[in-house]
Design brief:
Layout: H1 2-23, H2 26-32, E1 33-40, E2 46-48, H3 49-58, E3 61-76, E4 79-92, E5 95-110, E6 113-123
Parallel strand pairs: 1-6
Antiparallel strand pairs: 1-2, 3-4, 4-5, 5-6
Helix pairs in contact: 1-2
Length: about 130
């Protein structure tokens, strides 16, 4: 039963996180991402949580469309690995983005709260 409850919690956290990115809800983004999280963007650039937050604060990241699909969740006690496709449309550093990416995101349970500890993404080539 605990596995199913945790999977449901991760599904809810994923939805909250994607909604927060879409609406630039920095308070929710801050709450769901661990302070020491590490990201690897699809362009290969490693970034910190603070860099991600600054991109949204400054308007350098603004996505009008975020559509998830093909989500897979694997649970390992207090850690969850999520893989999913994201169709993104919007702006990133004054460049229009309209592409699909495959992301892997790792969540870890800290004092009863799930937090993202790492994210990596790769572009999915269009046929």
């Amino acid at each position: 039963m605990i596995v199913m409850e945790n999977k449901k919690q991760i599904e809810e956290c994923e939805k909250k996180l994607l909604d927060a990115f879409g609406s630039k809800d920095l308070k929710t983004i801050d709450k769901l991402i661990h302070d020491h999280a590490l990201f690897v963007y699809p362009n290969g650039l490693p970034v910190t949580k603070e860099m991600v937050m600054e991109n949204y604060r400054s308007g350098n990241s603004a996505f009008s469309t975020i559509i998830p699909s093909d989500q897979i969740i694997n649970l390992f006690e207090d850690t969850a690995v999520v893989s999913l496709n994201l169709e993104l449309k919007g702006n990133y550093h004054e460049q229009l983005v309209s592409a699909e990416f495959r992301y892997i995101r790792v969540w870890k349970l800290f004092n009863g709260n799930w937090k993202v500890i790492t994210v990596s993404g790769v572009p999915i080539p269009k046929p």
